[in-house]
Please model this.
Amino acid sequence: MGGDFASLTDFDRILHSPARLTIVALLSAAEEADFVYLRNESGLTKGNLSTHLAKLEKAGYVEIEKTYRGKIPLTLCRLTKPGLQAFRDYRQQLKRLVDETESIEE
Amino acid sequence: MSLTDEIDRLTKLPGRSWFADGLGELSAGGIFLVLGCLFILQETVEHPLLRIASAALIVAAPLLIRRLHEKLKERLVYPRGGYVRQRAVAKGRRLGFMILCPLILLMVIVCYRVGSLDTTLLAAGLFTALLLGSEARRSGTSRLYLLAPLAVLLAITIAILQVDELLNLGLFFAGYGLIMLASGAYALRAYWRAAPPQESAEDA
Model:
């Protein structure tokens, strides 16, 4: 039981952060999104968002493309396949933990 | 709100953003209005080009509406709220549409040939309602849940009035187009109030 519980709580440290989880959750439902959209929906500051995106990019979960729309600079973010899988695994793990906790309470 | 609920909420946001600003209704409403006017015009002016134009517009409508929607978003929304592209529609849903759309089109053609145009009118209302209902469910946009049954109601009302053949269809498309334009304008106004223009678009 102890071992099972440990595996349930062994969450991905990259995703196990409110800010990064928010970013990845938003990107999981999108083909791509720009920096402005992520900033508006996450409520993070520019600096904060940049820092977390850099961490996610370093982990291989997000790819970032700097481009232009006309003359306006644009930073596009996309979730990679490993990133999407990591998010799905995280959600399943969370759901298992909630289910286990509820069964203990009963 | 629990963490799982919050994650669910966040994953639905990109889908909702497609309809949140009302530009979808503005695009569709505009095309519907033009189509309605073409049908009404056919009542007074008998010209084969008008029939061809109506048929071509019906076929091209989904593509035109989408392109118009995207262009409007680029101009009016992305500079304010940022840009997001939803994930492609799930394969099952695409397959469903690929089967459903030709079936409904076939039903409309059969109704037109065999029955009166009123049946075609009701089919148009039902098809519009089904489409909007499906998008409402997918995006979670509550406004669309109200618009969907209005399509059927309008079609039934016009059918009961028994105005005239092509005029029935013209009144439906023009009338529903105006309803969608009003809904879209209301949503866009609310969106603009909530999302002021960004000082600088970008980023670190």
User: Anything to note?
Assistant: Strands of chain A lie at 30-34, 62-69, 72-79. Chain A touches chain B at residues 21-22, 25-26, 28-41, 46-47, 49-50, 69, 72-76, 91, 94-95, 98 (CB under 8 Å). The helical segments of chain A are 2-9, 18-28, 35-42, 46-58, 81-105. The two ends of chain A are 17 Å apart (CA to CA).
